Amino acid sequence: MVLTVLRASFVLLAVYAGFLVYGALTTRQVQSEWVKELKVDTVTGKVVAEGAPEYRPVEIPASHVAGPGLLVLCVGGALLFSIGIVTIDLVLPRKSLAAISGLFLGLLVGLVFAFVLGMVVKLLISTWWPDEPPPFVTGINVVLGLVCCFLTISFILQTKDDIRFVIPYVEFAKQTKGARPLLLDTSVIIDGRIADIAEQHLIESQMVVPRFVLAELQTIADSSDKLKRNRGRRGLDVLNRLQGNDKVDVAITDPQMVKSEGLDVDHKLVALGKSLAAKIATNDYNLNKIAQLQGVDVININDLATALRPVVLPGENINVKVIKPGEEVGQGVGYLDDGTMVVGEHCRDMIGQEVQLTVTSVLQTSAGRMIFGRRDSDPRRR
């Protein structure tokens, strides 16, 4: 809204400037009419001017001076110029500070080179034409300036990444105040635990959901497969839950990234994380590895859940409900509240009941953590 008002004001000011230019041109032509006080000399009989010239404004209509063509030219030219500038601003929605810095530096270096070469040309011309320099010297200097500025700007814009260590003019460290934004992946939204974490005031960062992640979520929700459809709808429900939570700031953005066409969602998310200096919240193992290779910080909800699991040491007592029999004779299997599998010795006959186990060992596997224990009332321990 603010940019729209700014652009409209710029166009109106340009039209007003066109009227001012037209008024200045016509006023100059009217005031250029002046006469001198003339007097006839009685001795010689000649007409001579007496005193200083006196300017006398002459009332001449503007239509007689310039005609309507000049008005159309001034106002129409200003209008077309302003519309052209606004069009360029709309076509290039994302301005690059690196490009502007490179343009400025290239122009400055080009002018310096053009000045030095102009001095050389002037020295050569004064050697060959010592009396009077030829008229084409000015044209040579203008051409040298244009060529030098073009070459230096083109060279700097094409090699700004290579000479960054020489002049750090294209890279400015982004000083982020407060917490860095948190990009949400499709998998972490469908998982839903991010909403529970947000309700505990553990996340101070702004949660950013890119438009392409939301589109992937909607595609999953519209899938013909029932399982995928349910997962997609669950993700949309979790997203609505996050937006309704006043404890966190959730923003859905439509980033305009350069060279993002043809990339999948994971690579787009990593590229956006690099450009925003943001962290990525995901449960996707492949995205986790890709982001680490690109130097983007990742928060894996599974790893976070693993780190928050209570530490169980051998010799401690735990209570668990036996759900099913184990693979070995006499074993019973149960689960803690965090999903950790517990294998109890001599618990097969206690299925459906809660028993107290003494931890004997803890095994960490790629699938998760397993706890082995033995019933306190085990007769083999007596």
Task: Return residue spans where pLDDT drops below 50 for at least 5 consecutive residues.
Answer: 28-36, 58-65, 163-177
CATH class of the largest domain: Alpha Beta
What name is given to the CATH topology of the largest domain? Rossmann fold
Beta content comes to 15-25%
Rounded average pLDDT: 76
Can you count the beta strands?
14
Number of helices: 12
Overall 3D shape = elongated
Characterize the largest beta sheet: strand count, sense, and whether it forms a barrel: 5 strands, parallel
- Helix share of residues? 40-55%
Strand order of the largest sheet: 7-6-5-8-9
* Computed Rg: 40 Å
In CATH, the homologous superfamily of the largest domain goes by the name: 5'-nuclease
- The oligomeric state of the chains shown is single chain
Write down the domain tally. 4
**CATH architecture annotation name of the largest domain:** 3-Layer(aba) Sandwich
What class do helices, strands and sheet pairing give?
alpha/beta
Cα(first) to Cα(last) distance is: 80 Å
The ordered H/E elements are HEEEEHHHHEHHEHHEHEHEHEEEEE
Describe this structure in words.
The chain has 382 residues and is an alpha/beta fold. It folds into 4 domains: 2-91; 97-158; 182-306, 5'-nuclease (Rossmann fold, 3-Layer(aba) Sandwich), CATH 3.40.50.1010; 311-381, Nucleic acid-binding proteins (OB fold (Dihydrolipoamide Acetyltransferase, E2P), Beta Barrel). It is built from 12 helices and 14 strands. The protein has helices spanning 2-31, 62-65, 68-91, 97-128, 137-158, 186-191, 193-198, 211-221, 226-243, 265-276, 285-293, 301-308; strands at 34-35, 38-40, 47-49, 54-55, 182-184, 207-210, 250-253, 279-282, 298-300, 317-325, 332-335, 341-345, 354-365, 368-375. It has a 5-stranded parallel β-sheet with strand order 7-6-5-8-9. Strands 10-11-12-14-13 form a 5-stranded mixed barrel. A hairpin with a 5-residue loop joins strand 11 and strand 12 (341-345). The longest helix is centred in the N-terminal third of the chain and has 32 residues, at 97-128. It is elongated and about 150 Å long. Residues 28-36, 58-65 and 163-177 have low confidence and may be disordered.
